Amino acid sequence: MVRSWYMILPRRVKEMIDSSCLCRLALIETQKFNLALVGPLMEKWWPSTHSFHVPVGEITITPLYFYASTGVPFGGRPMTRPETLTAREFADLTGLTIVTNQTHIHLRDISARWWRTDLWVNLGNMAQVIRSFLLFAMGQCLFSDLRVGVDICLVFFFEDLQEVDSWDWGGAIYAYLLWTLDLLSYGDRGLKGIGYILQPWCFEQLEISVPRLRDPQVTWRPF
Questions:
Q1: What separation in angstroms does the CA of 139 have from each of 11, 45, 123, 165?
Q2: Residues 3-48: tens digit of each pLDDT
Q3: Do residues 51 and 59 lie in contact, with contact meaning Cβ atoms separated by under 8 Å?
Q4: Are 169 and 115 in contact (CB under 8 A)?
């Protein structure tokens, strides 16, 4: 859905997104998880070491693999969640309406507000479109949760669009991934955030449930 929205964005908006460190968000495709694969694997996850303890030893999703899979770089200013973000401030930044004390917004509410191309005629709201798109992409691909929503405070890091690259997005998202895996190992339900990279990681590193090629004559190894 992120890619579909990206394809109909105005050229000027695409150029601004493409020039940021989050440009590959538009190319990430999330898929349904193979629960038969993820469930047993999480039994091998140790939160104390943030690694899988398998018969061959310890193995984990490294920052290098994370960067290669997402294109989101490490380094920059640490991302600390702002204590407050009022409904008025959120509306000014995104053009989206929320109620007082609301902490998350449903992705459907974001796309419903800005999906119509006739709303982009006014160049004055281009910044709101960009922030809303990036917030939507964060909720869909990186900081997603079981509520199919996204924390409204993330828009704080898009307030100055010229400073988007100055934040440590890789560090924050990678930490969120590890935290998600920790919760799963404790019995939490559902795979949140960027946990979908766990499935291709299994294909490549452990050769578990590797998809078969349609042409049996072609040999291929995922690493």
A1: 23, 25, 25, 18
A2: 888 888 878 888 888 888 888 877 776 666 666 777 788 888 999 9
A3: yes
A4: no
Closest CA to 26 of 41, 13, 38, 37: 13
Quick one: how many helices (H) and strands (E) in the chain? 9, 5
Query: pLDDT digit string (tens) for 56-104?
Result: 889 999 999 999 888 889 999 999 888 778 889 999 998 888 888 888 8
Burial 66-85 (b: 16+ CB within 10 A, else e): beebbebeeebeebeeeeeb
Which amino acid is residue 30, in one-letter code?
T
Question: Percent helix, strand, coil in the chain (nearest 5)?
Answer: 50, 10, 40
Spatial separation of the C-alpha atoms in residues 62 and 67, rounded to whole Å: 9
